[in-house]
Automatic annotation (TrEMBL):
PANTHER family: DUF4038 DOMAIN-CONTAINING PROTEIN, LMO1036 PROTEIN
Xref: InterPro entries: Apiosidase-like_cat_dom
Pfam families linked to this entry: Apiosidase
Native species: Phytophthora fragariaefolia
UniProt name for this protein: Unnamed protein product
Residue stretches making up the Apiosidase-like catalytic domain: 88-166
């Protein structure tokens, strides 16, 4: 984990801290940083594209993109994969190759502080405002293994991260 954090910090320093980026330049540092980050963590070795799989941590994306409703029993995650072509400045839906504009909101503590009704309301209002991604965390950054969620549940049994509280 420390190695990944160091790698990410070094990438940020090398590509994002050398002044403002001009979107008209071919060597846009933000794009370079994203490409390096994706290649470092999400590259599909059998492809020339860099693929970022949508993780369960941002399950809200399924709701916001209209692929599932909150009452859906089974989610189909393969429809939520997006790709960044190796030499492109854009994102695509992997299956359909349609352009994907990442309009995100951050709600880091969404699943820790709100009840299900409030989460549904929040996601519905974000979708109505045109957001298609909500970034959240699975484990709280603040005492994540010992902090209770809205319903009084801990994320892990006995604070052991190998034993999720399902």
């Amino acid at each position: 984990m420390k190695e990944r954090i160091f790698k990410l910090t070094k990438l940020q320093r090398d590509f994002c801290c050398h002044g403002p980026c001009n979107p008209r330049e071919s060597n846009n540092r933000s794009i370079s940083f994203l490409k390096l980050l994706w290649s470092a963590y999400f590259q599909d070795p059998n492809s020339t594209k860099h693929t970022m799989k949508v993780l369960p941590a941002i399950a809200a994306a399924a709701y916001l993109t209209g692929l599932v409703s909150p009452s859906a029993i089974e989610l189909s995650w393969h429809n939520l994969t997006i790709t960044a072509p190796q030499y492109g400045r854009y994102l695509l839906r992997t299956e359909s190759e349609e352009p994907f504009f990442w309009k995100a909101d951050t709600a880091w503590e969404l699943t820790h502080r709100l009840n299900k009704t409030s989460i549904d309301f929040y996601l519905k209002t974000r979708a109505e405002k045109g957001y298609n991604v909500v970034l959240s965390v699975v484990i709280s950054a603040y005492n994540g293994t010992t902090r209770l969620n809205f319903y009084g549940d801990l994320p892990f049994n006995n604070s052991d991260t190998t034993q999720p509280n399902e």
